[in-house]
Specification:
The protein has 79 residues and is α+β, with helices and mostly antiparallel strands. The chain contains 2 helices and 3 strands.
Length: 79
Amino acid sequence: MLAVTTTAAHYLITVGFPPLAQFLSRYGRQEPVLYLDGRRTAAVVLRLTGRGDLNILAAELSELPDIRTASTGDQRLDE
């Protein structure tokens, strides 16, 4: 009985885990991040909450005179 249970658990994990991991990564909520790089020596990373289009915010901020770049996503600013 123990061997049957162990074998069933093994197949349940090996067959069921990849679709579960894919589902969680697709629907898992990641915190939105906005990276700003100014003309002077400042680089700012904002972690935002709430609703709204982050790409529109980045586009509007990039139009400000002292902002060199404004980007979203997993990009890292060079130091």
